[in-house]
């Protein structure tokens, strides 16, 4: 009896862990909100981000942008398309919410804190692992990178 109970607990615990480690299921439809509920009105286009952050450590802002990619492991980070080709890396505040994988290509409004950061090689390699890049490509990451970052309180799909 103890063995059966132990096996069930193990199986149940593994099931919960597996469920937690998955991105949310869903279609990321217009109006869907993730994290804090926000209104899209008053959002600034992502092309203005450089101007907003210039001369300051960080800025609280609401921006509109297209999702370029979503963390394939859990949906715990996204990158946004910038016109210059350099993506803006977005993490969710307090790791409190995730986005479904099919949010790629969607226009969203994000509210939170924008800033520039020098990202370490170790952290860049970690995100490369999340993207399931090859070990060879990960090994090519040898220099830290200055990049835009965004810490999102909430995200709403607008297109």
TrEMBL record:
Residues 1-21 form the signal peptide. Pfam families: DUF4920 (PF16267). This is DUF4920 domain-containing protein. Keywords: Signal. It comes from Polluticaenibacter yanchengensis. InterPro entries: DUF4920 (IPR032577). It comes from the Bacteria.
């Amino acid at each position: 009896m103890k063995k059966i109970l132990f096996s069930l607990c193990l199986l149940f615990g593994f099931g919960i862990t597996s469920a937690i480690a998955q991105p949310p299921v869903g279609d990321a439809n217009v109006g869907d909100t993730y994290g804090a509920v926000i209104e899209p009105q008053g959002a600034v286009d992502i092309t203005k981000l450089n101007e907003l952050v210039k001369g300051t450590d960080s800025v609280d802002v609401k921006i509109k942008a297209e999702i370029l990619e979503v963390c394939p492991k859990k949906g715990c980070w996204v990158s946004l398309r910038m016109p210059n080709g350099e993506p803006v890396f977005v993490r969710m505040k307090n790791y409190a919410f995730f986005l479904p994988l099919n949010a790629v290509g969607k226009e969203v409004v994000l509210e939170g804190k924008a800033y520039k950061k020098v990202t370490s090689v170790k952290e860049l390699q970690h995100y490369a692992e999340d993207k399931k890049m090859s070990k060879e490509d990960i090994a090519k990451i040898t220099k830290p990178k200055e990049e835009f970052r965004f810490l999102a309180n909430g995200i709403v799909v607008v297109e």
